[in-house]
Amino acid sequence: MANGLPREGDELLSKIFTYSNDAIFVIDPERDWIVDVNPRACSLLGYARDELLSLPISAIHSREMPQLLAFVRSVFEQGQGWTNELTCLTKTGINVACEISASVIEIAGRKCLIALVRDISDRKRAEEALKRYSENLERLVEERTAELRRAEERQRLLLEINNAIIANLDRQSLFSAIAQSLKKVFSLDAAAICLRDAERNTFRLFALEKPALSNYVFEVGKEFDQKDSHVGWVLETRRPLLRRDLKEERQFVLEDSLLAQGVRSYVVVPLTSKGRAFGTLNVASGTPNAYSEEDAVLLEEIAAQISLAIENAEAYEEISRLKAQLEQENLYLQEEIKTEHNFGDIVGQSRPIRSVLKAVETVAPTDAPVLLLGETGTGKELFARAIHSLSKRRHRALVKGELRGTSCWAY
User: Fold this and answer.
1) How many domains does the chain have?
2) Which three-class secondary structure state does DSSP give residue 74?
3) Are residues 311 and 350 part of one domain?
4) Which tens digit of pLDDT belongs to each residue from 338-395?
5) Distance (Å, rounded) from C-alpha 87 to C-alpha 56?
């Protein structure tokens, strides 16, 4: 039997070539020729067989010739090759994603390539869809993680402020502690609390944090007219005010001053208690778009805590003031008693007087009872008080009474 397949074999190869589900191209790369194609190749690209055989290979891969030449060179060197990085241009101008498996064959003494080409457009679309889904899923996971992180920071901030409220009773230390907590979460170049003076229809500034803005000149204790101001608007409406870019959004006269001093964005939220708005919490930044609606909501929650803290601080200050006043009054009364009832009231330098005073100094430190005898008006009470002022019980009250018509003192 001669070399090669018998005639039946030739017919079998012809049927495989004709009825294959893959497009088959026989090409001569050196001459840029398409030597032969099967019907599936014509169907894939939308050409008749004669049309395809009249086209150069470069017409099908016009946008990818460098990649195609590199692939052909690799196949010639290794005898075979595979790629899914090339596309084929159809007659209608559509680039079809393809998977190409090629081998070297010899035809009429020339090295050619036989390439099996499969349309993988659906697979590519599925892979791209899966990639997009994976990217979206990853993005959602990142967003959710960021949300959880922000929620954790939010809870930590609320807890820190709550601890600051418990640990700091006076107003200034409370404000400083709150400012340090706010700086951990917010972009903060300046922060303040404004408290309302209802009688004067003004508000007064209490700084929480020393401004980092170079032009900022508002001072602690500075008083502003509430009318036609952004703080006044928040106090009246009891709603937060968010300015993302003060250069574009300012409406009130005082906002011109803020902009001139370097403020570009801020949030102001009301401080309320028992149905009344008595002040505001203000945070500001020299950077536009430093705050969001979410930040405003968080600051409202913080403001609710601060409102209680300010009430507690004011109550503590009032208690401290009353306590100091009582201590002062008590001291004054003790001085009065000491001035009115001491040895200074006993006038005399005679030997009997000095003898009695010596006896007073002797008996006063002891626990012995003392009997004072004398006619009415001779100064028995003065000597009783003198003994009391020198005794170990001088800090206790001296009680005067009568026993069977006779005056007596006890302490």
Assistant:
1) 3
2) helix
3) no
4) 544 455 566 666 777 777 777 877 887 887 887 777 777 777 777 777 777 777 777 7
5) 15
Q: What is the CATH number of the domain that holds 92?
A: 3.30.450.20
- Neighbour-count burial of 245, counting CB atoms closer than 10 A to its CB (0-12 exposed, 13-18 middle, 19+ buried): middle
- Hey, how many other C-beta atoms are within 10 angstroms of the C-beta on 341? 17
Q: What is this structure's pTM?
A: 0.48
pLDDT digits (tens, 9 = 90+) for 194-213: 888 877 888 888 766 666 66
Please choose, from the candidates 258, 306, 260, 304, the residue with its C-alpha nearest in 3D space to the C-alpha of residue 284.
258
Q: Which amino acid is at 91?
A: K
Are the C-beta atoms of 95 and 89 separated by less than 8 Å?
yes
Phi/psi of residue 408, each to 5°? -145, 155
Domain with 388, as residue range(s), is 343-410
> Distance of alpha carbon 375 from its chain centroid, rounded?
84
| Residue 236: strand, helix, or coil | helix
Burial class (CB in 10 A: 0-12, 13-18, 19+), 230: buried
CB 56 within 8 A of CB 33: yes
220 and 104 co-located in one domain:
no
pLDDT for the residue numbered 399: 66
Domain shared by 238 and 170, yes or no? yes
Residues 82 and 72: beta-carbon distance below 8 Å: no
Per-residue pLDDT band for 1 (boundaries 50, 70, 90) equals very low
For residues 313 and 320, what is the distance between their CA atoms, to the nearest angstrom?
Answer: 10
Tell me the backbone φ, ψ of residue 58, rounded to 5 degrees.
Answer: -65, -20
Do 307 and 273 form a contact (C-beta atoms < 8 A)?
Answer: yes
pLDDT at 78: 94
The C-alpha atoms of residue 154 and residue 160 are separated, in whole angstroms, by 10
Mean pLDDT rounded to a whole number for the chain: 81
Rounded to the nearest 5°, which phi and psi values hold at 98?
Answer: -135, 155
Res. 264: pLDDT tops 70: yes
Q: Tell me which residue of 31, 203, 196, 46 sits closest to 108, measured CA to CA.
A: 31
Listed in sequence order, the DSSP H helices in 341-409 are 351-363, 380-390
